[in-house]
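Notes, p. 3: input format for complexes.
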Amino acid sequence: MQEVVSTVLRDHLKGERLRIALEVNTLVRRKMADLLIEKGFLEIPPVIFSSVTDPLNHPVYDPTFEYEGSRYSLTKSMIFHKQMIVQEIPKIFTFSPNVRLETPDKAETGRHLLEFTQLDLEMLNAPREESMKLAETLISETIREVRKKLPDRLRSLHRELPIPKTPFKVFKFTEAREKYGKDFEQKLSEIEKEPFWIIDIPLKEREFYDREKDDEKGILRDMDLIYPEGFNEAISGGEREFEIERIRERILAKGQTFEQFKWYLDYASGGMELSSGFGLGIERFTRFICGFKRIEEVHPFPKVPGKFCI
Ligand code: AMP
Ligand code: MG
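Output follows (310 residues plus magnesium ion):
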């Protein structure tokens, strides 16, 4: 058994596909960081564990540990840390390692890992539309760069990769769901030829922290970016709730406790301003660029839901 695992691993590590994926991964991270730095963003170091992390809106196991009498979680996303630091430094980004112990049914999607990296960024006083425009630039300019710098690699993968035209198409969540049914994201992802947005996602589909529209109760000022060709979700983001009373109300509406988010709430009580931002999965972007069926092909040591991993 040990021998079989190590042979499979050796073949994977030796493989041409992994080598190309890592070249793409390196270029993707560098190009996106360069673009952000040119636009005045500062990079902040990642938070690996914290006493407060993203509650998420889907079930995952929660790895926690105790240190000197306090309980900590491994970071699921840096949403709260981003929102606090952006109050002082108005444009920030980080390459944030996230651990999400997803349930085994996620193994079949081809886009879930237990450990992955997000390009996570946030801007102060920026409406959602500014974040959407920035994401479009990052995606299209990075694809342009890969086509320019690694054309032979794309050719050897037989990957046609057109530069997406901006602005991307926009669908409203409820309208898309009505037209295409429950599985609308996957269906649209298979129909569409270019990346597209799903906006105005209802409160019950999302965590408590995205901002509710003032003129449409229960609908949020948020968005997901979906890749075409069936690759599905690339990005989630939105404007954030920043007023303490609204944050408290939303936590209660989700059946969560103030205790869980204690020092975030303490901070928010001191006053915050509006921000928006998003998280873009690096392994998913690399997978899309390479046109691979499964995300584990882009990682030397992938952790697949439900499977033993090294
Ligand atoms: P979220 O805010 O939860 O949507 O996460 C932000 C982005 O991280 C997503 O849009 C994906 O690109 C990426 N992501 C989320 N979960 C995973 C996962 N289990 N494996 C790989 N990438 C993920
Ligand atoms: Mg999401």
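The domain at 2-298 is CATH 3.30.930.10 (BirA Bifunctional Protein; domain 2).
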